[in-house]
């Protein structure tokens, strides 16, 4: 079986360095808010081209705490409308509703799965205060256009960069476009820890200070609490793991792109649509880091069964859109036909830096041998 994502093999590549890093943390006697976190924050801010990086417990908290910090700063208030793609992973929406802000679900671009500037502009009202731009599947949202739109209307922009570490447009990376950006280092993400971890990047000094306080009980100085904060910190052990893995991120991304290119060229089945990138041709690929390689077909169930029978594990990202979840029962009647069609048709092929060329060829052959029911 070709696994969808072989995390064990990915981390085994760095086994010695990871063990050295873990040993360093164990022997330091200091496990929270120490030198590993400081070093990782500084490395990751530099990697993204942002002034600040604030480590937090996970990607959801990165988004939630940023919106919360804007509320503390008086830039957002309860009930404000936040535009977000209807087809995103539920975490983007949870961060909005947790803050009692109002998500405005907008249908994505049909080809890129990301926000479309025209459709986004069409839902801006006097109550709109921010855009949550999700870089879905690893492809950067159209940030030049979205930032121009936000400037025109005085909106905040929060990037959800959980799937897009290192994706760029004109050399400018995810995490440096919006007023702030949330990252996840969940083990399966392109930059994955060996547990939960996340971070916010921003160029805003004041915002950075408040997020840092919010994630540490609302405190900047021990035992003095400015806010009713939470405990959301990136611990020393995960920071040490991430420092090791950050050094290999670009090499791993390169391999993901090679595999994506091989799929794009090799899969010729007429009933399977390939992911299309908006800002680069498939030979430059700057704006897509292929966290996922998502194809579409009206015969998804049959294709998934065929691939499984041929020894190829696939997953669906995602089977149920947020507005059809029980958690958001009040939106269940809302109609988002494009989003709903995507959720019925998308299928994610295996893509990971440790796949061999033979495995890539086997996936291509399995796709091309699919017989329509
Ligand atoms: C993974 C993910 C998150 C949440 O990150 P966690 O670290 O799992 O909390 C948020 N948004 C998107 C798009 C994601 O893929």
TrEMBL record:
InterPro entries: DegT/StrS_aminotransferase (IPR000653), PyrdxlP-dep_Trfase (IPR015424), PyrdxlP-dep_Trfase_major (IPR015421), PyrdxlP-dep_Trfase_small (IPR015422). CDD domains: AHBA_syn. Keywords: Pyridoxal phosphate. It comes from Marinobacterium sediminicola. The keyword Cell cycle does not apply. Belongs to the DegT/DnrJ/EryC1 family. This is dTDP-4-amino-4,6-dideoxygalactose transaminase. Pfam families: DegT_DnrJ_EryC1.
């Amino acid at each position: 079986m070709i696994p969808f994502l072989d995390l064990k093999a990915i981390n085994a590549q760095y086994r010695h360095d990871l063990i050295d890093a873990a040993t360093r943390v164990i022997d330091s006697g200091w496990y929270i808010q120490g030198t590993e976190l400081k070093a990782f924050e500084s490395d990751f801010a530099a990697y993204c081209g942002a002034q600040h990086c604030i480590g937090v417990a996970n990607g959801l908290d990165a988004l939630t705490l940023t919106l919360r910090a804007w509320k503390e700063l008086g830039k957002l208030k309860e009930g404000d409308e936040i535009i977000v793609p209807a087809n995103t992973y539920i975490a983007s929406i949870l961060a909005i509703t947790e803050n009692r802000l109002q998500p405005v679900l907008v249908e994505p671009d049909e080809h890129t799965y990301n926000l479309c500037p025209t459709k986004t502009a069409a839902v801006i009202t006097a109550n709109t205060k921010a855009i949550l731009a999700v870089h879905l599947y690893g492809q950067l949202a159209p940030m030049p256009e979205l930032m121009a739109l936000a400037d025109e209307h005085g909106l905040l922009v929060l990037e959800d960069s959980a799937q897009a570490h290192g994706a760029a447009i004109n050399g400018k990376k995810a995490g440096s476009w919006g007023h702030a950006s949330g990252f996840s280092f969940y083990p399966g993400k392109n930059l994955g820890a060996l547990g939960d971890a996340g971070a916010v990047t921003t160029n805003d000094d004041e915002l950075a200070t408040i997020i840092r306080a919010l994630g540490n009980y609302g405190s900047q100085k021990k035992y003095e609490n400015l806010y009713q904060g939470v405990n959301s910190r990136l611990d020393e052990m995960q920071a040490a793991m991430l420092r090791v893995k950050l050094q290999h991120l670009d090499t791993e991304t390169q391999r993901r792109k090679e595999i994506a290119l091989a799929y794009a060229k090799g899969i010729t089945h007429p009933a399977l649509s390939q992911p299309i990138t908006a800002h680069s041709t498939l030979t430059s690929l700057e704006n897509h880091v292929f966290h996922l390689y998502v194809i579409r077909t009206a015969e998804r169930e049959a294709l998934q069964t065929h691939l499984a029978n041929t020894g190829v594990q696939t997953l669906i990202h995602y089977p149920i859109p947020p507005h059809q979840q029980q958690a958001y029962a009040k939106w269940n009647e809302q109609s988002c036909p494009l989003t709903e069609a995507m959720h019925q048709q998308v299928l994610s092929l295996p893509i990971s830096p440790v796949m061999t060329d033979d495995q890539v060829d086997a996936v291509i052959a399995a796709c091309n041998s699919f017989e329509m029911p």
